[in-house]
Amino acid sequence: RQGDYVDLIINEMIPEVAGEDLADYIDVFCDRGFFTQEETDRILMAGVKHGLKPKIHANELDFSGGIQVGVKYNALSVDHLEFTGEEEIDVLLHSDTMPCLLPGAAFFLEMEYPPARKMIDSGLPLALASDYNPGSSPSGNMQLILSIACIKMKMLPEEVINASTLNGAYAMDLQHELGTISLGKKANVFITKRIPTYSFMPYAYGSNKVETVIVNGRIQ
User: Fold this and answer.
1) Are 28 and 41 in contact (CB under 8 A)?
2) Which of 13, 56, 91, 116 has the most CB atoms within 10 Å of its CB?
3) Among 48, 128, 59, CA closest to 87
4) In what order do the strands lie in the sheet with 25-30?
5) Exposure pattern of 19-55 as b/e (b: 16+ CB <10 Å)?
């Protein structure tokens, strides 16, 4: 039974994982057919108790209440958000939780995209991520994600660049060491091929614009 599995997660898995220092975060998929609001609440409570940083995947399939649970626990991010209405936007506006959109999943599953333009125009920041996984988004190509976000969700080039760098770092509580080219941060950057403008990044979808990758100050 699902309830027994939730008990197993709370009473055995989380203490073991936290005790062995195997994870920094705890992430729950709160959605129709998966973990309920109540189950998500219990799992996040246990994770926080053991020092794990809360995150949420929610509202991909329905208005699941996952956004509200995530904000209750001051989650770093709530991810997916295809089903996001006025109530959810208002909850997020009164929180420090980063809405993180995963357009690769909506593309692969042929679903409706999150209302990115409405969220931005309401005053919300957004992060972007690939949701790279074999079941719903089998591509980790962030250049493609930028293109989908602009073409299908009507985000602007500067918005998708900010969403996939600084806001993405914030969504993992890494904004003080990653996300911008700044003194004191890690030198994780890439250099593009010659392109006419930064807007070319999402415009020329499917083509590789990256020439050089630098990780921790070293050319790869």
Assistant:
1) no
2) 56
3) 59
4) 25-30, 53-58, 77-80, 98-101, 127-128
5) eeeeeeebbbbbbeebbbeebbbbbbbbbbebebbbb
Contact 112, 81 (CB under 8 A): no
DSSP 149-195: HHHHH---HHHHHHHHTHHHHHTTT-TTTSSS--TTS---EEEEPS-
Helix (H, G, I), strand (E, B) or coil at 26: strand
Q: State the Cα–Cα distance between residues 97 and 139, nearest whole angstrom.
A: 25
Domain count, the chain: 1
Nearest to 158 by CA among 202, 190, 189, 122: 202
Contact 115, 122 (CB under 8 A): no
Under 8 Å between Cβ of 153 and 80 = no
pTM equals 0.95
Residue 186 lies in a domain: no
| 153 within domain boundaries | yes
Tokens 């940083």 found at: 53
Read off the pLDDT of residues 95-114 as tens digits, 9 standing for 90 and up: 999 999 999 999 999 999 99
In CATH, what number is assigned to the domain containing residue 158?
3.20.20.140
Nearest to 126 by CA among 77, 82, 86, 83: 77
Q: Residue 183 falls within a domain, yes or no? A: no
Report yes or no on 122 lying in a domain: yes
- 88: domain range? 2-177
pLDDT digits (tens, 9 = 90+) for 19-71: 999 999 999 999 999 999 999 999 999 999 999 999 999 999 999 999 999 99
